[in-house]
Every structure is written in C-alpha cells, then in structure tokens.
Write a structure and sequence with these properties.
Elements (H helix, E strand, L loop, with lengths): L5 E6 L7 H14 L3 E5 L2 H7 L2 E3 L27 H13 L4 E6 L1 H12 L4 E5 L15 H22 L1 E7 L6 H10 L3 E3 L7 H13 L5 E6 L6 H11 L4 E6 L11 H19 L5 E6 L2 E6 H6 L6 H10 L2
Parallel strand pairs: 1-2, 1-4, 4-5, 5-10, 6-8, 6-9, 7-8
Antiparallel strand pairs: 2-3, 10-11
Helix pairs in contact: 1-9, 5-6, 6-11
The structure holds adenosine-5'-triphosphate.
C-alpha cells in the first residue's frame, strides 16, 4: 500500500455529541504527523458533491465542547448505489485523498465498508446515541445522551411526586433499548419498555398500580421509541384503567442528541480519533475503533455490519428489582 499523505474525515448519519471532539482529534493527530487533512461536508452526500476542503489545526479549535458536528451530517440514497460509490472513489482520487476516517452509526459503517471493498484505506469511528452497534461497549454520544435523560427524569420526578402522577418518558432507540434500560437503572424507573422484551398493557398497569398501593408518590415509566406499545396508547389505556396515579407523557426526542459532550465522551472521542489515524498510518483498513474493556482497538467492519449487539437484559432485570 502506498503511503498515506492526505486524510479526509466526515461525519454521517444521526449526529451525536462528541463528533466535534473526534473531528478535532483526527485532524490534530494527522497534522501532528505531518499529513494533510481534508474535511468533507455533510457525510456521503457532500462527498458526492465534492464538498470538501483543507482543515488546519486552528479551524478545529474551540469545538471540543460543542455538540453536533461542524462538518454537518446527512443521509445519502445515491451513495448506496454502485454508481454513487464509483463516483465517490473518483472524487476522492481527484482530491488526492489517500485515506478516510468515517464517524457515524452502523449505516455509515456499511458505507465505509463499500469504499474499503473498492480499495480505499478507511477506518470507522462509532458515534450514535443509540449504542446499537456491535464491536464497541460504548459509541461516542451515548454517555452524554444518558446524562441528558437522567437530568430530565430528575426534573420530571419532582413534578410527578408533587401531583402523585405517573410519567411516561419516551427515549430514543428504534431497534435497541439500551438508552431506555440504562435510563431505568440510573433514573429509578418503576417500569421499562424496550423492543427486546415485549410486554402487555395489563402488565404495565399492574406494576404502576402496585407502586401506588405500596405508597409511592410517583411512578416513572421509561418507554423506548421502539417498544411494542406506543407511549400515547399506553397513556390513554392507563388513564382508563384507573391505576391510582394520573398519567402524563414526555417525549424527550431530539434533546437527547444535543448538548456539550460529557468528560467520558470527550475522552472516548479523542482516543478513538487518534487511534483511527494511527491505524490508517499503520496500513490498517476496513476496521472500526471499538472500546473493548478499557482499550480502544480495531474490530473488523465486516463484523460490525453483520453482527447484532446483544440486549442488556441483566440491566433490565436490575431496573425491575430496584423498583421494589
Ligand atoms: P444513526 O445510527 O445515528 O442513524 P447511521 O450511520 O446508522 O446513524 P444511516 O442513515 O443508517 O445512519 O446511514 C448513513 C448513511 O450511510 C446513509 O444515508 C447511506 O448514505 C450510507 N449507507 C447506509 N447503509 C449503506 C449500505 N448498505 N451501503 C452503502 N452505504 C450505506
């Protein structure tokens, strides 16, 4: 493989707090090692438009603490096609790019694989608040999202106990209940609904009513976006069933994606960004940086895009027990 002289970086898919910290780490590490850095705007969509330009060390200053991504992010249908990928390869060649760091979720890693298969040196960095990716204990953004959720639960509990209410709090996570389960443990929820463990409305109602009878002043129910019962459906059913508490809904939505990255996310993003550049410079490709135990290590992109992350059912059981 020829020497990597110019490294491009892009962010893709849903934004996650800590993406900026990672862009900074990739750029500074590459520049420190005497390489040129190119920032690609708006993920694969911007790549296909040739929307890219040099990034210098000062341009990535002052972003370590900012949520979102200064490069912008997008989803691209054209990039999923063979023609789109060939075009992307041609554009990267024209800009003299020898290697790419892709920061994003599992769809973005599928895109990275497609370019790796065409011979481009490419390394992925996991960033998504859902924590639904195989190969890393934590993706960038998850810790910040959990802190946002726990702040929200604390505030909602204050008002819930003052009025003896049950609050149904919906978290993000279309196919993965990670955020909801962890929110259940750290926020002290009575019930958690996740896609991996379907429940009936009657079961949820029985638990909420039981909490009422045991003298609790409030009940917190965390509903993952992908759970088998819709939050609105559950709320109206609980109202009709008379479970003791009156019911209110809060859908946390995109608030979970924003905000200053936590210390954990900044450290993880910095470590992963540096390791991604190190890997490219060492001739590695078609891998993603994964947090395995305490170490950041490369894992094959082939595994990341084909293997399923297992649900945290131990934590799910723990949340249930601690609701006693
Ligand atoms: P999040 O988990 O936050 O939604 P993501 O990276 O999974 O982030 P996606 O929308 O799934 O977000 O993927 C981002 C982009 O990656 C897509 O818009 C598309 O351009 C590209 N992509 C996804 N899957 C493939 C694929 N199989 N082949 C090529 N490119 C893909």
């Amino acid at each position: 493989m020829s020497e990597i002289k110019r490294i491009a970086v892009l962010t893709s898919g849903g934004d996650a707090p800590g993406m900026n910290t990672c862009i900074r780490a990739v750029a500074r590490c590459a520049l420190y090692n005497g390489r040129d850095v190119i920032g690609i705007r708006d993920g694969y969509e911007g790549l296909l438009l040739g929307a890219m330009g040099p990034l210098d060390a000062r341009e990535v200053g002052g972003i370590i603490q900012r949520g979102g991504t200064i490069l912008g992010t997008a989803r691209s249908e054209e990039f999923r096609t063979e023609a789109g990928q060939l075009k992307a390869m041609q554009i990267l060649k024209e800009h003299g790019v020898d290697g790419v760091v892709v920061i994003g979720g599992d769809g973005s890693m599928r895109g990275a694989r497609a370019l790796a298969a065409r011979g481009l040196p490419i390394v992925g960095v996991p960033a998504t608040i859902d924590n639904d990716m195989w190969g890393t204990n934590m993706a960038i953004g998850v810790d910040t999202a959990l802190n946002t959720i726990s702040d929200a639960i604390d505030k909602l509990r204050d008002t819930a106990s003052s009025h003896r209410r049950a609050f149904l709090i919906e978290t993000m996570g279309r196919n993965c209940g990670y955020l909801a389960v962890m929110a259940g443990v750290i926020g002290g929820a009575e019930v958690v609904l996740i896609p991996e463990a379907p429940v009936t409305i009657e079961e949820v109602a029985a638990k909420v009513e039981d909490a009422y009878k045991r003298g609790k002043t409030h009940s917190i129910v965390i509903v993952s976006e992908g759970a088998n019962i819709l939050t609105t459906e559950l709320a109206s059913a609980l109202e009709k069933m008379d479970v003791g508490f009156s019911t209110r809904i809060t859908i946390l939505g995109h608030i979970q994606r924003g905000g200053r990255p936590t210390a954990f996310d900044r450290l993880l993003a910095s470590r992963m960004g540096v390791k991604a550049v190190d890997a490219l410079l060492a001739g590695q490709t078609d891998v993603m940086m994964g947090l395995r135990g305490r170490e950041v290590e490369p894992v094959p992109l082939a595994d990341v895009v084909t293997r399923q992350r297992e649900a945290n059912l131990d934590y799910y059981e723990m949340a249930k027990m601690l609701a006693f």
